[in-house]
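Repro:
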Amino acid sequence: MNKIRKGDQVVVLSGKDKGRQGTVLSIDGEKVVVENVNKAKKHQKPNPQRQIAAAIVDKAMPLHISKIALWNAGTKKADRVGIKQLKDGKRVRFFKSNGEVIDA
Protein backbone atom coordinates (compact mmCIF):
# COMPACT_ATOMS: atom_id res chain seq x y z
CA MET A 1 0.00 0.00 0.00
CA ASN A 2 1.44 3.36 -1.04
CA LYS A 3 1.42 6.21 1.44
CA ILE A 4 0.83 8.73 -1.37
CA ARG A 5 -1.73 8.04 -4.09
CA LYS A 6 -3.04 9.68 -7.24
CA GLY A 7 -5.50 12.45 -6.38
CA ASP A 8 -3.98 13.25 -2.95
CA GLN A 9 -3.43 16.87 -1.91
CA VAL A 10 0.31 17.29 -1.21
CA VAL A 11 2.81 20.01 -0.30
CA VAL A 12 6.43 20.26 -1.51
CA LEU A 13 8.99 20.04 1.32
CA SER A 14 12.20 21.10 -0.47
CA GLY A 15 13.53 22.56 -3.69
CA LYS A 16 12.58 25.57 -5.77
CA ASP A 17 8.85 24.96 -5.23
CA LYS A 18 9.07 24.53 -1.45
CA GLY A 19 5.73 25.21 0.25
CA ARG A 20 3.60 24.95 -2.90
CA GLN A 21 0.54 22.70 -2.87
CA GLY A 22 -1.02 20.63 -5.59
CA THR A 23 -2.78 17.41 -6.51
CA VAL A 24 -0.88 14.26 -7.44
CA LEU A 25 -1.40 13.56 -11.16
CA SER A 26 0.65 10.38 -11.48
CA ILE A 27 3.08 8.14 -9.60
CA ASP A 28 5.81 6.08 -11.25
CA GLY A 29 7.86 4.24 -8.63
CA GLU A 30 9.75 6.91 -6.66
CA LYS A 31 8.74 9.76 -9.01
CA VAL A 32 5.59 11.83 -8.51
CA VAL A 33 4.05 14.41 -10.86
CA VAL A 34 2.20 17.17 -8.98
CA GLU A 35 -0.20 19.61 -10.64
CA ASN A 36 1.26 23.14 -11.15
CA VAL A 37 4.56 22.24 -9.42
CA ASN A 38 8.06 21.78 -10.92
CA LYS A 39 7.16 23.21 -14.33
CA ALA A 40 9.68 23.18 -17.19
CA LYS A 41 9.59 24.80 -20.64
CA LYS A 42 9.31 22.31 -23.51
CA HIS A 43 9.94 23.29 -27.11
CA GLN A 44 7.17 21.53 -29.01
CA LYS A 45 7.73 20.66 -32.67
CA PRO A 46 4.87 21.22 -35.13
CA ASN A 47 2.78 18.27 -36.27
CA PRO A 48 0.46 19.24 -39.14
CA GLN A 49 -1.32 15.87 -39.10
CA ARG A 50 -2.59 16.51 -35.56
CA GLN A 51 -3.03 20.30 -36.06
CA ILE A 52 -0.33 21.04 -33.45
CA ALA A 53 1.58 24.26 -33.94
CA ALA A 54 5.15 24.87 -32.86
CA ALA A 55 5.22 26.43 -29.39
CA ILE A 56 6.96 26.59 -26.05
CA VAL A 57 4.72 24.85 -23.52
CA ASP A 58 4.90 24.35 -19.75
CA LYS A 59 5.27 20.71 -18.73
CA ALA A 60 4.94 19.29 -15.21
CA MET A 61 8.12 17.39 -14.39
CA PRO A 62 8.36 14.63 -11.76
CA LEU A 63 9.60 15.10 -8.20
CA HIS A 64 11.10 12.49 -5.92
CA ILE A 65 8.55 11.09 -3.50
CA SER A 66 10.70 12.08 -0.49
CA LYS A 67 10.30 15.78 -1.38
CA ILE A 68 6.54 15.82 -0.85
CA ALA A 69 4.21 15.21 2.09
CA LEU A 70 0.47 14.79 2.40
CA TRP A 71 -1.49 17.95 3.29
CA ASN A 72 -3.48 17.62 6.50
CA ALA A 73 -6.52 19.91 6.20
CA GLY A 74 -7.30 19.52 9.91
CA THR A 75 -3.97 20.91 11.15
CA LYS A 76 -3.35 23.10 8.04
CA LYS A 77 0.18 21.75 7.45
CA ALA A 78 2.14 18.88 5.93
CA ASP A 79 1.96 15.60 7.78
CA ARG A 80 3.56 12.17 7.80
CA VAL A 81 1.47 9.15 6.90
CA GLY A 82 1.30 5.71 8.47
CA ILE A 83 -0.56 2.52 7.61
CA LYS A 84 -2.54 0.52 10.14
CA GLN A 85 -4.89 -2.43 10.03
CA LEU A 86 -8.42 -2.05 11.36
CA LYS A 87 -10.21 -4.73 13.38
CA ASP A 88 -12.04 -5.96 10.27
CA GLY A 89 -8.70 -6.56 8.51
CA LYS A 90 -8.85 -3.53 6.22
CA ARG A 91 -5.61 -1.53 5.87
CA VAL A 92 -5.98 2.26 5.96
CA ARG A 93 -3.71 5.31 5.90
CA PHE A 94 -3.66 7.71 8.85
CA PHE A 95 -1.97 10.99 9.80
CA LYS A 96 0.81 10.49 12.35
CA SER A 97 0.18 13.82 14.16
CA ASN A 98 -3.44 13.30 15.17
CA GLY A 99 -4.22 9.68 14.16
CA GLU A 100 -7.02 10.73 11.81
CA VAL A 101 -7.84 8.07 9.18
CA ILE A 102 -7.44 9.36 5.61
CA ASP A 103 -9.38 6.75 3.61
CA ALA A 104 -12.11 5.01 5.56
